[in-house]
Amino acid sequence: MKFKIMKYFAVVAILAVCIVAGGMLDNQNKEASRSLFAMDTYMEITAYGRNSQKAVDAAAAEIERLDALLSTGSQTSEVTVLNNEKTGKPSEDMAYLLERSQEINRETEGAFDITIYPVMRAWGFTGEGFRVPSDEELSRLTDAVDMTRLRYEDGILTIPENMEIDFGGIAKGYTAARVAQIMEQYGVKSANLSLGGNIQVVGAKPDQSAWRVAIRSPEPSEAYVGIVSIENKAVVTSGGYERYFEQDGMTYHHIIDPKTGKPVYNGLVSVTIISEDGTYADGMSTALFVLGRDKTISYWRSHREKFDFVLMDESGMMYVSEGIEKDFTSEREYQIIR
Ligand code: AMP
Ligand code: MG
Q: How far is ligand 1, taken at its centre, from the CA of residue 186, in Å?
């Protein structure tokens, strides 16, 4: 009799363990995802685990909040109001973006400059219809491109006459970094954030393996040029092929050299930056695209703790920094930079 009762208890105990373990597994694998269109791009957020649905909802709200703050296309956004009024107190988000932009501007000899906006407009990249400005017009406009002339003191930003700012080269990376923070606040240990060309991942995949992120190909016929395996990092690509127009047999793209006011042609087709800091990865992908291959390599050699890169040039050759040697695969020819 005693033996029978013990057997009965054992069965109940095993059942209970199975139910609890099954529940935990279920929670771990619980997936929530959401697609949205913001900042002129298609975004997709996927999170796993117990709070994933709440985290994804909070992430979407955060993206919409930042879009409303930073969109130059909106007449009521904080950035448009500041551009019009020329002086004011930036929000916490904008203050942070200003500081990070200043840092990247300093680090890259001015290759990254948020006062490029009037030049972007002259080329029609802000939506008014594409055109090729004259050299004379560009020389006049570039005289007013220099973000070191912005005054940001005691919490007040002052924008000189003729100057306007835009965070288009860094806003998506910042947004991805903010969303990653939100995921962590909700206790999400695994998430994949895809904001246009900006990818940021939280933790590893639910099965504990690394996330495999494809680096887009400049050619529409090819899906990707390589795959990088990452955990807790951002992968951000800047490329001329992302936005461009053609006129009289020439192609004009959206990454502009602040010195000339013209699209950059230096032999690079794309720059991918891999870093734990999503804001930095975005700003630097734009800046290093402007600086070109050799300057990117020498900058990386003195800042290798901050990021890794994958560069692709016009001949299709790729250059990959040593830090991701073991985490990078490609069918193409590539050279490891040490
Ligand atoms: P990304 O796709 O991150 O490389 O950013 C490209 C966008 O950044 C452009 O569409 C412009 O809005 C802006 N931009 C273009 N050239 C520059 C530059 N030299 N410095 C800062 N932002 C730029
Ligand atoms: Mg960028």
A: 32
